[in-house]
Design goal:
Blueprint (H helix, E strand, L loop, with lengths): L21 H15 L4 H8 L2 E3 L8 E7 L2 E7 L4 E3 L7 H13 L10 E2 L10 H7 L1 H8 L3 H10 L3 E2 L5 E8 L2 E8 L8 E6 L9 H16 L3
Helix pairs in contact: 1-3, 4-5
């Protein structure tokens, strides 16, 4: 039976509440670990762009290493429980995203262009909700304060991209990139903002996983205001 993190046909997922309850995520995380353990870890690492270190004299188990929002994360194989660089356990929804990333990753190359959430497979029906808690929330917060927006993105480790009035690229996972683009308004028209994805994103996460990453990015930016 296929394993789902959540999904567009899963009645437990509500796009207006993009981080499901921890108990649901912990159950899915256990399912994902069970699906991954029979696989070859070197193949999983190659498909996902992670680094795998096999067991050796100085370590009893193999381990996966990767960057999550630019921060080092490590997980032993086959335990598949992720810890940050301080050896703190990642929150349940981050564990689930990382695991579903490993399950979904098929090694597809990034296309090097940007599309909206609506243009991802399965995204159009939930696009209004996604936009409301990501781009619209950012635009409401910064309004005409473009300098505040750029400062917040830079503090959140975004890389400036030349498009819109201001835009920043973020590396969420080794092969999942997001772009936040801001269009400055004026006294008559409000500012607008969108979070975009490389079209390959759903080769690495289901559409609800992409929604959660978009929500996480919006919160990272808003936290720097």
């Amino acid at each position: 039976m296929p394993v789902r993190f959540t999904g567009k046909n899963d009645r437990n997922w509500r796009p207006t509440r993009p981080e499901p309850a921890s108990s649901d995520l912990e159950k899915r995380a256990d399912e994902l670990r069970a699906a991954l353990r029979p696989l070859n870890p070197e193949l999983v690492a190659a498909r996902s762009g992670m680094t795998y270190l096999p067991p050796g004299p100085d370590r009893g188990r193999g381990a996966m290493h990767f960057l999550f929002w630019g921060k080092p994360v490590t997980t032993a194989w086959p335990a598949l429980i992720a810890h940050n660089e301080l050896d703190d356990l990642l929150p349940a929804f981050q564990q689930a995203i990382f695991l579903y990333y490993l399950v979904t990753a098929d090694g597809s190359p990034l296309e090097g262009r940007w599309v909206s959430f609506a243009d991802l497979p399965g995204g159009r029906v939930y696009n209004a909700a996604f936009q409301s808690y990501t781009g619209d929330e950012i635009a409401r917060t910064f309004a005409l304060n473009l300098e505040g927006f750029t400062s917040a993105c830079e503090k959140a480790d975004g890389q400036r991209v030349a498009t819109g009035d201001a835009a920043y690229r973020f590396q969420a996972l080794p092969r999942v990139e997001l772009l936040v683009v801001y269009h400055l308004g004026d006294d008559d028209f409000p500012s607008s903002c969108k979070i975009l994805f490389d079209p390959s994103a759903t080769h690495y996460l289901p559409i609800d996983g992409c929604a959660i990453l978009g929500s996480m990015l919006a919160k990272r930016i808003l936290a720097q205001k």
